[in-house]
Amino acid sequence: MQHDITKLLEVSRRYGSDARYVLLGGGNTSLKIDDVMYVKASGHALANIDASGFVAMSLPRLEAIWNKTYPEDPTQREKEVLADMMASRSDGETARPSVEALLHAIIPFRYVVHLHPAIVNGLTCSQSGKTAAARLFPEALWIPLVNPGYILAKTVRDAQAEYKKKNAKDASLILLQNHGVFVAANTIQEIDQCYKDIMDILQRSIVRKPIFTVVKPNAAHVALVQKAMQTYYGGKQPYPIIANRELSTRLSNLESFASISSSYTPDHIVYSGFAPLWVDKTVFFAKDTVSVLIELFKNFEIEHGVPAKIIAVQETAVFAINEAALLLFLDTVKVAAFTESFGGPRFMDANQINFIRNWEVESYRANMVAK
Ligand SMILES: [Zn+2]
After folding, report:
1. 5 touches 25 (CB < 8 A)
2. Pairwise CA distance, residues 181 & 143, whole Å
């Protein structure tokens, strides 16, 4: 490593180990020194990151990407952009840069800390998010939901140019609809101040916080679902479950379930699946509940090509195929509650969800995390 990146490591670990800001691998950071950008490598968690979790990239090489023309076809385009991104690494680098490296590169500040906090996504995933953001954060740049990767970076780049024309300075706070926030500054102190301000302003604007008081679900029903999951998904250990007041309200019927029935952000798709499987309580009236459940699991997999990662059982609890899926689903519940302060929930649209589901880069990240 050419430069001292101690401060970058410190700020990454600090935000990475604070659950208000970061869940699992979510979020990434970077530091620019002269012509080099150190950006988080794909598949590393911020909480315990060391120098090997960062990739050095050449800023001039990354900048050259903007002088190229890429194919219209999204798969072909992302493949070529990825190849150019890999070729932009400093000589000798072997790690794969974060899928968001291109975005980091175009933000003209030394430090960039990009996170997906639930409270921020309560704003970015809400019906009146854009107008609320304009009121609460007049300095911020709001980016609408577009395909991730090249298109997102290009959208931000164009919006930045527009912003600079109007404000005679660069945007240092960027809110991405259905995604998260980029905070940029030349010092760590400014980064910290900006995040503190964001959190304070949002805390004051939230009319209701999620209620995570634990409730006890029907043990016999839980046992039946566990048995069906063990038969279908394998394993001997009980699968992780959650039951709390916030969820109970939402598990009462399909209508109340609507606000947690799809994906708010790419991270939610990657970890807890694009949608949970809803199981009606009538399943417990069946003679052989376990077989009926297994049939439902099977049908979901046939219909969607992937098994359900989250199983939401009416008036019972939410079951997950692993801890990561559970954690991110809990985040979905938080985001849903926070959106109530900003006109109600707004999921990613079907096109965006499909784009992510088919995106090779995201599946790579999911695999890395699973290892
Ligand atoms: Zn992100």
Report:
1. no
2. 10
Closest CA to 96 of 371, 364, 303, 366: 364
Residues with CB under 5 A from ligand 1 (ion): 180
Please give the class, per CATH, of domain 219-370.
alpha beta
Which residue is it, tokens 């692993």?
322
Ligand 1 centroid to residue 83 C-alpha, Å: 20
- Neighbouring residues of 23: CB distance < 8 A, sequence distance ≥ 6: 116, 267, 327, 328, 331
CA of 115 to the centre of ligand 1 (A): 6
Q: Residue 6 Cα, ligand 1 centroid: separation in angstroms? A: 23
Q: Supply the pLDDT for residue 305.
A: 86
Per-domain residue ranges of the chain: 6-205, 219-370
CATH number of the domain at 6-205, out of 3.40.50.2000, 3.40.50.1820, 3.40.225.10, 3.90.550.10?
3.40.225.10
In this predicted structure, the answer to whether residue 360 has a pLDDT above a threshold of 60 is no
Question: Looking at residue 43, what is its pLDDT?
Answer: 85
Residues 6+ apart with CB under 8 A from 232: 293, 294, 297, 298, 307
Task: Please tell me the distance from the alpha carbon of residue 124 to that of residue 345, in angstroms, as a whole number.
Answer: 9
Q: What percent of the chain has pLDDT over 70?
A: 96
Check if the beta carbon of residue 195 is closer than 8 Å to that of residue 153. no
Predicted confidence (pLDDT) at residue 367 exceeds the cutoff of 70: no
Residues 6+ away with beta carbon under 8 Å from 162: none
Q: What is the pTM of this model?
A: 0.93
Indicate the burial class of 240 (C-beta count within 10 angstroms; 0-12, 13-18, 19 or more): middle
Q: What is the DSSP string of 106-159?
A: TS-SSEEEEE--HHHHHHHTBTTHHHHHHHH-TTPEEE----TTHHHHHHHHHH
Please tell me the distance between residue 181's alpha carbon and the centre of ligand 1 in angstroms.
Answer: 8
The mean pLDDT of 197-221, rounded to a whole number, is 96
pLDDT tens per residue across span 151-188: 999 999 999 999 999 999 999 999 999 999 999 999 99
Q: What is the pLDDT of residues 317-328, one digit of tens each?
A: 999 999 999 999
